Amino acid sequence: MAFPINFPSAPSLFSAYATVSASIVLLQTMINSFLPRWLRDYLWGFIYRYFHPKASPRSATIVIEDGDRISANVVYDAAEIYLCDRSQSDIERLKVLKRPSDPGLTVKFAKSEVISDRFDGMELEWRFVREERKNSESRDKELDRLFPDSSAWKQFFELSFDKINKEKVINSYLPYVLQRVEAMKEANKIIRLHTLSTTCILGSRIVWDSITLDHPSTFETLAMDPQLKKFIIDDLDRFLKRKQLYRRVGKAWKRGYLLYGPPGTGKSSLIAAIANYLKFDVYDLELSSVKRDSDLRSVLLRTANRSILVIEDIDCSVQLPDRGSGGLQPRGHGQEVSFSHLLN
């Protein structure tokens, strides 16, 4: 015998839905209005941990900590840039900042978040954790006094995945994240011109000062013989592609050009065009400010990789052999930079 089933009418369903929705909104408003933020974060975290399925015994987790106050963790910085770029719509709370020299906005995490990602058939889960540091976790009281803001919080990423994919995550996924972020940085890079600061010239310490190099010269606008221009571009492209070849044969990955001519013949414009083409910073070195080979070595060690070093008036600044006398031409008093050290 069949019994009739009485389904609720559409108006009653809509009324019930509206009542539940209004109750949820009212409850959320009361929580946001009367509970402090730290208590709200604790409650939401508790609810998330209660309903979110726990990691299976076959899962593995990699912890990526923020760098200390002396040096940065490149993997942590890359992970934050990568996740903020691809998952902004999934992040609930963001922190935005822009320095005067930045080309655009910098987006960072503002609170703990959970973000999913896929790579080569793998399911990965990123968890950003930002929590207050306990007093007992402080390792250096003097650094805490100098950097009070950085000592108050600790933050790190947890990357969880199936244990069977551990090698693939370490050897493929994380390098992919680093390469992706490096490409993003190169695309948005601002070229800078570096010069030795006054403190270095006065003998205090080696410091490079920098400003934005906003030079309009490019190979498209450069007035140069077309064949010579093509030769330089092809040579630069070939040099970039042969980085691993230089490493295999045990040679330093560097390329040198000698530019000569009277003032106003386009030497600086060519350097700017090369810098704009390669997206390399430019280091302008006046050898008159470097007294000894040891100082020159210290100066060069403080230049960045993938950069252009410009040495002006090199014929007037180093000891060059005098073919007539068989000796060295005299140089300024107290300056001992040799040509061989400069080439090496």
Automatic annotation (TrEMBL):
Domain AAA-type ATPase N-terminal as annotated: residue spans: 35-129
Cofactor requirement: Mg(2+)
InterPro entries attached to this UniProt entry: AAA_N_dom, ATPase_AAA_core, Mitochondrial_chaperone_BCS1, P-loop_NTPase
Region spans: Disordered: 325-344
A Pfam family hit: AAA
Key words, A-Z: Hydrolase, Magnesium
Keyword Magnesium belongs to the record: yes
GO molecular function, one term: ATP hydrolysis activity
The ATPase AAA-type core domain, residue ranges: 257-318
Name of this chain's protein: AAA+ ATPase domain-containing protein
